[in-house]
Amino acid sequence: MQWTNDQPIYQQVRDHVVSLIIDGVLDAGEPIPSVRQMAVEGGVNPLTVSKAYQELVDLKIVENRRGLECL
Predict the structure, then answer these.
(1) H helices present in the chain, as ranges
(2) What is this structure's pTM?
(3) Domains, the chain, ranges and CATH?
């Protein structure tokens, strides 16, 4: 993952997850990568990933299930 200065990183993380869904990399009901995993792979702060994930939940793109965010 490469981040740009065009928009905040949390929005880029959010858009990355959406692209994984659209491209079929993630299937319905499948957990998305953990905050920690996404932070390490993306080289970003876990709080940034948490903010992106919360926005995905707020937009009803993913849902929380027992502490996991799922499609």
Answers:
(1) 9-22, 35-42, 46-58
(2) 0.86
(3) 9-70 (1.10.10.10)
